[in-house]
Amino acid sequence: MSTIAATDLKIHGVKAIEAALSERAEAVISVRGRGRYVVVDADHYNYLRECELDAALAASRADMDAGSFVKETAADHLRRLVEKLS
């Protein structure tokens, strides 16, 4: 993963990000020598979000297949949530 120092980002702006992302799909922005942020281009971000949503869907399907769910009305669901929070 490429690293961009915060000072380089301050001096070179978006060009520093573009240069780092031309080498790899993601870059770390370091502040005082420690990785603080990760930057990716929009296409890669959308791909990662899609993967996250696919994983959530797979987990939901596994719960359904295992019978690990509750079937109830919206009112019953809210009542159950209020009881849990109390």
Blueprint of the fold:
Layout lengths: L1 E4 H7 L1 H10 L2 E6 L2 E7 L1 H25 L7 H12 L1
Protein structure class: alpha+beta
> What is the total tally of β strands?
3
**Which regions have little confidence, pLDDT < 50, spanning 5+ residues?**
none
Largest sheet: 3 strands, mixed
Helix content: 55-70%
- Terminal residue distance: 46 Å
N-to-C SSE series?
EHHEEHH
Strand order of the largest sheet: 1-2-3
Total DSSP helices: 4
Task: Throw out a few tags for this protein.
alpha+beta, 3-stranded mixed β-sheet, 3 strands, 86 residues
Task: Write a structural description.
The protein is an alpha+beta fold. Helices cover 63% and strands 20% of the residues. The chain contains 4 helices and 3 strands. Strands 1-2-3 form a 3-stranded mixed beta sheet. Strand 2 (26-31) and strand 3 form a beta hairpin. The protein is elongated, with a radius of gyration of 21 Å. 5% of the residues are buried.
